[in-house]
User: Fold this.
Amino acid sequence: MDLLQQAEVYENRTMSHMSTSDRVAASREGKKLILAINEIYKKTKDSHLMEVMKRLTVKKKKIEKRIKGRLAA
Assistant:
């Protein structure tokens, strides 16, 4: 499963010193991985794949939060 290896690399990637364009690219890559794993999950219903998707989603949300910035109150 090359897809799971890509997911592991994405998960272990450091987020420090990333430019905005790097964050956007990382967010898109995360979305692509999640959707690809989801297609396999629909067929197999493997719980390990669901856990991987959850972890990738958490990482992706952190990156997107950083892209959007903090809202001024």
